[in-house]
Amino acid sequence: MQKMIVSDLDGTLLDHEHKVDAFTAATFQALAQQGVLLAIATGRHFLDVQGIRETLGVKAHLITSNGARVHDPENNEIFAENLDPELARALMQPEFSHGSLLNAYVDAGWLVERECPELVGVYYKDSGFGYQVTDLKHHNGEDIAKILYIGDHATLTAIESKIIDRFGDQIYITFSADDCLEVMAPTVSKGHALTEVLARLSIDAEHCYAFGDGQNDIQLLAVAGHPFVMGNASPKLKAAHPNAPVIGSNDEHGVAQQLRQIFKL
């Protein structure tokens, strides 16, 4: 029976420096050689995640922008969902973004309202992924996969409440980290994207193993027959999946260690 492994990146497959370690890469390569299918599910941009997949040294489906984009191992786009342009324009106004760093993902790359070299130095040293400074409050709102607000958690929680009060079920909103609030179309989530991938490959969810650490992994783990929660996971994820096994942290190579036990590597 065909099996699939799907893993989040930051806080899950990547260490605290947001890098792939050699032990994890060797584990994924061994699984690929056994014929196990692989997928990455992340809030990161498709152009960024391609480089991480190359570092892993495997073929894998890519679920990116929290499920707003899905690509097959040959980089063919098989699913895409954008925010409604009028809604996107509203979300990029200072009424909502005040106090945060406003960002947006489009197919061509990462748009940000001002210079933020500190983000590149932390998250994108290996991939070389970079941003383009753009006057987002005057953007036409077309072709936007997701909008991000980066800031302190208290400020972002207030922004989240304001967005939910105004737009409710017109959007899917989630924290990918305490300092990153993200908004996508209402049909978008990692879980929905995983459902699309499993159906395309004719794999039963009961043969899918999923790993995550964040609030944006709640739906992902709900779809998989075998969900695993990282030891360093957010309280919201642990509360949403109280019966899922809690494994080692990302710095303890928790995903690779668990997979080596499951598949007897």
TrEMBL record:
PROSITE patterns hit by this protein: COF_2
This protein's record includes keyword Magnesium: yes
Origin superkingdom: Bacteria
Cofactor(s) the protein needs: Mg(2+)
Cited Pfam families: Hydrolase_3
Keywords: Hydrolase, Magnesium, Metal-binding
GO molecular function, one term: phosphatase activity
Similarity-based family: Belongs to the HAD-like hydrolase superfamily. Cof family.
PANTHER family: PTHR47267, PYRIDOXAL PHOSPHATE PHOSPHATASE YIGL (PTHR47267:SF4)
Name of this protein: Cof-type HAD-IIB family hydrolase
High-level lineage: Bacteria, Pseudomonadati, Pseudomonadota, Betaproteobacteria, Neisseriales
